[in-house]
Write a structure and sequence with these properties.
Blueprint: E1 2-5, H1 8-11, H2 22-28, H3 45-59, E2 63-67, H4 70-73, H5 82-97, E3 101-107, H6 113-116, H7 125-141, E4 147-152, H8 154-162, H9 174-198, E5 203-209, E6 213-215, H10 220-243, H11 265-269, E7 275-279, E8 284-289, E9 292-296, H12 314-326, E10 332-336, H13 353-371, E11 376-382, E12 401-404, E13 409-412, H14 414-431
Parallel strand pairs: 1-2, 1-11, 2-3, 3-4, 4-5, 5-7, 6-8, 7-10, 10-11
Antiparallel strand pairs: 8-9, 12-13
Helix pairs in contact: 3-5, 7-9, 8-9, 12-13
This protein binds 5-hydroxymethyl-3,4-dihydroxypiperidine.
5-hydroxymethyl-3,4-dihydroxypiperidine binds near residues 10, 153, 336 and 389.
Length: about 425
């Protein structure tokens, strides 16, 4: 199954038709977004979704992964906002009419601001509010959705948002990050219970971002640092979800950084999964550092994307191997993979050959992983179109479709045409 992915805050716009989210507040805070921009309009997808669905139909994808904006579909009193839901009903109808399967993510970082005002993910109650939201939304949209994911990349919602200050709400405290991570994981477990009840025939799961963690040198110290990084970045999320336990790193944390885990939480978090979504972008290289669990280092001379991330296709094989070595796995979907490149529109065209090469290399790596036994059922390119890249604003372009943010004109890039031709060749072959 091949698809493309997006998320609500990054593309939807129509901010005036929903409640504010933590990302509105973050964008309103000077200095938080690199280019000083705001996600309020983004790709104006709420008005232009028909055109965007047509672009997907023309691309020939089997599936579309998008997220639902919690502040669009719920009122602050916990009641469903039926007007907000109508947008998703129309979108889902459009997808279904074109034979495109809907992969809906419930939480891709746009927490309603009213919940942040009550403590956000530091407040255990937010996990129960997530369960309530999951229940309301899955009852209304459930029949039209092929697959539900509870969370997208809880690592980012916890670490980037509470420890590194790079994402909303922008705190810089590891103890907070660990507590937020626990409540996010709890919300996943509570959400899964509801999804199993309301949508037993859907493919229900979670999406994690995973990266191989390499040591900067063969020294014992650097290898130990890379091992800690792996536990902190990968195991902290995959472990609880797939085995019901945090990695051993939990015993090395100072007491005030150990999250409050209540009786039964780990069982709640470890629910049977219909699928595991894996987002893969790059590897990490780590060394030991005074006063830190690990420090990441840039390896000179490696090919980089416009995000400064190393292009490392073999990492996809390594991540899939690591998962199967460690866990009993459900079927896997690569729910995001892609690259920001310095695209230029010239004469109405965008020649993004470096992105085409990126996809070719990663799909070849995926083929190797599947040949080695990985049970991967689908692959989603990030992203359908250029969009609001969080704290980088509109300065980074990941799309197969170029967006002119002044006019909202969409222009398909060469990578879109390459993806389209790959899908067409596949369909022609399977017809023989
Ligand atoms: O744009 C993000 C997306 O929201 C989550 N995964 C990584 C992408 C690129 O940074």
């Amino acid at each position: 199954m091949f698809g493309v992915a997006t998320s609500s805050f990054q593309i939807e716009g129509a901010a005036e038709q929903r409640l504010p989210s933590i990302w509105d507040t973050f964008c309103d805070t000077p200095g938080r977004i690199e280019d000083g921009s705001h996600g309020a309009t983004a790709c104006d997808h709420v008005s232009r979704y028909r055109q965007d669905v047509a672009l997907m139909a023309d691309l020939g994808v089997d599936a579309y992964r998008f997220s639902i904006s919690w502040p669009r579909v719920m009122h602050a009193d916990g009641k469903l906002n039926t007007k907000g839901c109508d947008f998703y009903l129309r979108l889902l109808d459009g997808l279904n009419e074109n034979g495109i399967r809907a992969f809906a993510t419930l939480y891709h970082w746009d927490l309603p601001q009213y919940l942040e005002d009550r403590g956000g993910w530091l407040n255990r109650d937010t996990a129960y509010r997530f369960q309530e939201y999951t229940d309301a939304v899955s009852r209304v949209l459930g029949e039209r959705v092929f697959s539900w994911a509870t969370l997208n990349e809880p690592l980012c919602s916890a670490q980037l948002a509470y420890e590194l200050g790079m994402h909303a709400p922008g705190f810089t405290d590891r103890a907070m990050a660990k507590q937020a991570a626990h409540h996010l994981l709890l919300s996943h477990g509570l959400g899964m219970q509801v999804l199993r009840q309301n949508c037993p025939n859907a493919l229900n799961g979670i999406v994690l971002n995973l990266s191989p963690c390499h040591a900067a040198s063969e020294s014992h110290e650097d290898r130990a640092a890379a091992f800690r990084a792996d536990q902190d970045l990968n195991g902290w999320y995959a472990g609880p979800v797939l085995t019901g336990a945090y990695p051993d790193l939990i015993d090395q944390l100072p007491a005030h950084e150990v999250p409050d885990v209540q009786e039964g939480d780990m069982e709640t978090i470890c629910q049977p999964l219909g699928f595991l979504g894996v987002n893969y972008y790059s590897r990490g290289v780590f060394r030991a550092a005074q006063g830190a669990l690990y420090e990441d280092v840039a390896v000179p001379g490696k090919p980089l994307t416009d995000m400064g991330w190393e292009i490392y296709p073999e990492g996809l094989v390594e991540v899939l191997e690591m998962l199967s070595d460690r866990y009993d796995l459900p079927p896997i979907y690569i729910t995001e993979n892609g690259a920001a490149m310095t695209d230029r529109i010239e004469g109405g065209a965008v020649e993004d050959s470096s992105r085409i090469r990126f996809f070719e290399q990663h799909l070849a790596a995926l083929e190797r992983a599947i040949a080695a036994g990985a049970d991967v059922r689908g692959y989603f390119a990030w992203s359908l179109m250029d969009n609001f890249e969080w704290s980088y604003g509109y300065s980074k372009r990941f799309g197969l479709v170029y967006v002119d943010y002044e006019t909202q004109e969409r222009t398909v890039k060469s990578s879109y045409k390459a993806f389209q031709s790959m899908l067409k060749t596949r369909n022609d072959r399977s017809a023989c």
